[in-house]
């Protein structure tokens, strides 16, 4: 079907060349019209390939003979010199067709090789990413398991010889690592649900103070003695959101701030109304993040490279982004002028709110 289409286009090119020659016929002798047909042959070779171009050359000879070589409108040739013209035109047409078609084929071959190289590069990058993610997940699963196994093995083998304080420390270590493992697996499941579109927020009026209180309570054991200051807007009590999901967002942000804040530094939670939006910011006084990484801070498995600070699983902020966007909101991170990182959430207070 493609080949037939090419030959039909060849006929159209010859018809077009014939129409042009008919227009200029009063001003040109017939042999000069050959150049118009040669242009049609070149066009066919460049766009259609070798065989349609040769067919164009053949049809051009017939059209030129029939319409413009005396006696016109017949295939008879009064002057035998035109036979040489026909032969020369056809040979030149075939040569041009071969040359142009060869260039076209080489160009297509280079394009094909370039496309295959690009596909191979993308495939290699994907394999590298999958390998890196698998290594990261394996490491994050293995680390707490090793700690738990070590603590339990010590209790099993040396429990009778350990002091009560040592046994308690080992049990606390095992418990903390089990909680860490549980959070990581939970994050993986949440991320999977977000990407599958299975996690849909149940938005209803919720108490803002209750939201922040629930998040701080859930973080109580990890925050320890760290101070969390809270600033709430006057007169705003109920906001439309999914209390459970947004509590998880705040827990993740508080957990992230707690990791990077100085030992005695506080964490600041501020809520304010910006037009038709609720702005909710969690900020710390830690080292912040390199400017180049701010745009990737919400990517999956991305860990901020901060000296002497240990990153998490690289999933918490990514989950925050997914939940906030499921609310129709936005989330962004910025470095504070006096040091530290601030993560701001914008949630619409009403449907169709324009971003401030």
Topology:
Elements: H1 2-24, H2 34-47, H3 50-68, H4 81-158, H5 164-196, E1 204-207, H6 208-218, H7 220-223, E2 228-231, E3 238-241, H8 243-260, E4 267-274, E5 277-283, H9 316-326, E6 330-335, E7 341-348
Parallel strand pairs: 2-4
Antiparallel strand pairs: 1-3, 4-5, 5-7, 6-7
Helix pairs in contact: 1-2, 1-3, 2-3, 2-4, 3-4, 4-5, 5-9, 6-8, 8-9
From the structure above, extract its key features.
356 residues; alpha+beta; Helix Hairpins; Heat Shock Protein 90; five-stranded mixed sheet; two-stranded antiparallel ribbon; 9 helices; 7 strands; elongated
Give an account of the 3D structure.
By secondary structure, the chain is of the alpha+beta class. The chain has 2 domains: 1-198, Helix Hairpins; 204-348, Histidine kinase-like ATPase, C-terminal domain (Heat Shock Protein 90), CATH 3.30.565. It is 59% helix and 12% strand. The protein has helices at 2-24, 34-47, 50-68, 81-158, 164-196, 208-218, 220-223, 243-260, 316-326; strands spanning 204-207, 228-231, 238-241, 267-274, 277-283, 330-335, 341-348. The strands form 2 sheets. It has a 5-stranded mixed sheet with strand order 2-4-5-7-6. The protein has a two-stranded antiparallel sheet with strand order 1-3. Helix 1 runs antiparallel to helix 2 and helix 2 packs parallel to helix 4 (81-158).
């Amino acid at each position: 079907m493609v080949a037939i289409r090419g030959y039909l286009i060849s006929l159209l090119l010859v018809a077009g060349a014939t129409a042009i020659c008919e227009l200029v016929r009063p001003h040109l002798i017939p042999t000069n019209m050959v150049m118009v047909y040669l242009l049609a042959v070149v066009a066919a070779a460049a766009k259609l390939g070798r065989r349609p171009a040769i067919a164009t050359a053949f049809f051009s000879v017939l059209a030129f003979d029939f319409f413009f070589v005396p006696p016109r409108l017949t295939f008879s040739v009064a002057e035998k010199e035109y036979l040489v013209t026909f032969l020369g035109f056809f040979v030149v047409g075939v040569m041009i067709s071969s040359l142009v078609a060869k260039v076209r084929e080489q160009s297509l071959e280079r394009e094909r090789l370039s496309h295959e190289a690009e596909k191979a590069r993308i495939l290699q990058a994907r394999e590298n990413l999958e390998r890196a993610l698998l290594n990261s997940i394996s490491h994050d699963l293995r680390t707490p398991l090793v700690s738990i196994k070590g603590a339990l093995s010590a209790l099993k083998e040396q429990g009778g010889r350990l002091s009560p304080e040592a046994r308690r420390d080992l049990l606390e270590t095992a418990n903390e690592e089990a909680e860490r493992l549980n959070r990581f697996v939970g994050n993986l499941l949440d991320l999977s649900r977000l990407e599958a579109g299975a996690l849909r927020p149940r938005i209803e009026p919720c108490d803002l103070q209750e939201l922040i209180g629930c998040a701080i309570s859930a973080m109580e054991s990890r925050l320890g003695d760290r101070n969390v200051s809270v600033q709430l807007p006057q007169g705003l009590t109920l906001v439309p959101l999914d209390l459970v999901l947004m509590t998880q967002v705040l827990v993740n942000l508080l957990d992230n701030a707690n990791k990077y804040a100085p030992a005695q530094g506080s964490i600041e939670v501020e809520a304010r109304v910006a037009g038709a939006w609720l702005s909710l910011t969690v900020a710390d006084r830690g080292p912040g993040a390199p400017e180049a990484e701010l745009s990737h801070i919400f990517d999956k498995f991305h860990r901020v490279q901060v000296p002497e600070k240990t990153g998490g699983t690289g999933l918490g902020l990514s989950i925050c982004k997914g939940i906030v966007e499921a609310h129709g909101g936005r989330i962004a991170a910025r470095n504070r002028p006096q040091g530290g990182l601030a993560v701001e959430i914008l949630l619409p207070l009403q449907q169709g709110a324009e971003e401030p």
